[in-house]
Design a protein that fits this description.
Peroxisomal membrane protein PEX16, globular, two-stranded antiparallel ribbon
Length: about 400
């Protein structure tokens, strides 16, 4: 008669522990994803250089084989867009690490572009969100066009016009948020090297954990544990002394000497320029009058061009091309060229000047002139280079965003 009770007791004792407390099991399961994300963020911060190399290698791979598979070019662009979006997330992580660092390396003045964009991303949450949306749209615009093209040319041009309208709206919002200051490219801070103290912070925490273990061992094992603790401490001091030396009388650290082969670079890195001491808002002046009109024309030029291009029935028609280029040139003529122009604004207009070269790869200019020139060059190239160039020709002929700036 006691057998069923014994069997029942044995069954209940062998049941898994999670069945007794399902709420705790659920909490533990939900705590795993944030933990994994934190581990990934920590890995990216510690290995920023290696991560950048991997990202560059993946981008280079997508550049080499842009349309290798004619019916599956969307796969190559998906990889490229994914790498770009992942790089954008990594940039956010590294910017957060640099902002939280207090080392002398992080105190060095960043580039004017990074100072300006970092100021606005920290000051205005709306600027940060709009700039992030603009960056994401730019990274995925060609992928969206490829997906829309599979549903027909009419759907494709509607998607292209919608994307250009979203980009123009984001840029107008940024112009409004920054109180009519010129737009910079990109609108978010660019990636900077992570200081060594940020990379070594977790290593120091791990060393501290070793010290605690040594203390516990010393309490339990006596003198042997104390020797282990002292050896760990001496090793930590030696690693710290490799970077700086503490003066015995004052106790202040003396930084390591620069590399004798790069004395000029060491001195130039400590020279302050006028832009280094300017407030971030003074790096770009507010636009008024014709200068503000020039900025608005520059923002609206791609949208006007793509609308004219979508309405044109002939790909070789010069009308859309002349309309778009005329607006760009009008913006350059109306811009402020006076003494008030800052160095950052001149750099931005210089970038825009170089981007005018893309007009030779668009619309009627490509169909009537550049296409034949590229074909002649391709026929004189080795087979490997000619194959890659032919793949790019396929993109230039069929997709608008492959040559947009």
């Amino acid at each position: 008669m006691s057998l069923p009770a014994d069997v029942h007791r044995g069954t209940s004792s062998s049941s898994p522990s999670w069945s007794k407390n399902p709420a705790a099991s659920v909490r533990n399961a939900l705590a795993l994803p944030p933990k994994w994300v934190h581990m990934y963020d920590d890995f990216i911060t510690k290995n920023a250089g290696q991560v950048s190399q991997i990202e560059s290698a993946l981008r280079s791979l997508t550049y080499i084989i842009p349309g290798r598979f004619r019916d599956a070019e969307i796969a190559s662009e998906t990889v490229h867009s994914g790498v770009q979006l992942l790089s954008l997330y990594h940039d956010t992580l590294l910017l957060r690490a640099i902002s939280g660092s207090k080392s002398p390396a992080s105190a060095r003045s960043p580039s004017p572009h990074n100072r300006y964009t970092r100021f606005w991303t920290q000051k205005s949450a709306l600027y940060r969100r709009v700039a992030m949306v603009l960056q994401i749209v730019q990274y995925t615009e060609l992928l969206c066009e490829m997906a829309a093209k599979r549903r027909g040319e009419r759907i494709r041009w509607r998607v292209v016009m919608l994307i250009e309208a979203v980009k123009a709206l984001c840029r107008l919002l940024l112009l409004r948020i920054t109180r009519s200051r010129p737009l910079v490219t990109p609108a978010l801070p660019e990636r900077e090297p992570v200081p060594e103290d940020v990379k070594d912070a977790d290593d120091d925490d791990a060393d501290s954990g070793v010290f605690l273990d040594g203390d516990e061992d010393s309490a339990s094992n006596g003198a042997h544990g104390t020797e282990n603790h002292d050896s760990a401490t001496n090793g930590h001091l030696r690693s710290a002394n490799d970077k700086e030396w503490t003066m015995p009388r004052t106790g202040m650290p003396l930084p390591s000497l620069p590399n004798p082969a790069d004395i000029s670079g060491y001195l130039l890195s400590r020279v302050l320029t006028a832009d280094d001491i300017k407030p971030a808002t003074r790096l770009l002046n507010s636009l008024r009058g014709s200068a503000q009109a020039a900025e608005i024309l520059h923002i609206l030029a791609p949208l006007v061009y793509v609308i004219a291009l979508a309405r044109a029935k002939n790909k070789k028609s010069w009308t859309p091309w002349l309309i778009g280029l005329s607006i760009e040139l009008a913006a350059r003529q109306l811009r402020d060229r006076g003494l008030r122009t800052t160095a950052l604004e001149r750099d931005e207009w210089s970038k825009r000047g170089w981007s005018l070269g893309w007009w030779t790869m668009r619309g009627a200019a490509y169909e009537n002139f550049t296409k034949g020139l590229v074909g002649g060059v391709r026929r004189r190239m080795p087979s490997l280079v000619a194959g890659i160039l032919e793949d790019y020709e396929y993109l230039w002929e069929n997709y608008y965003f492959s040559t947009s700036s």
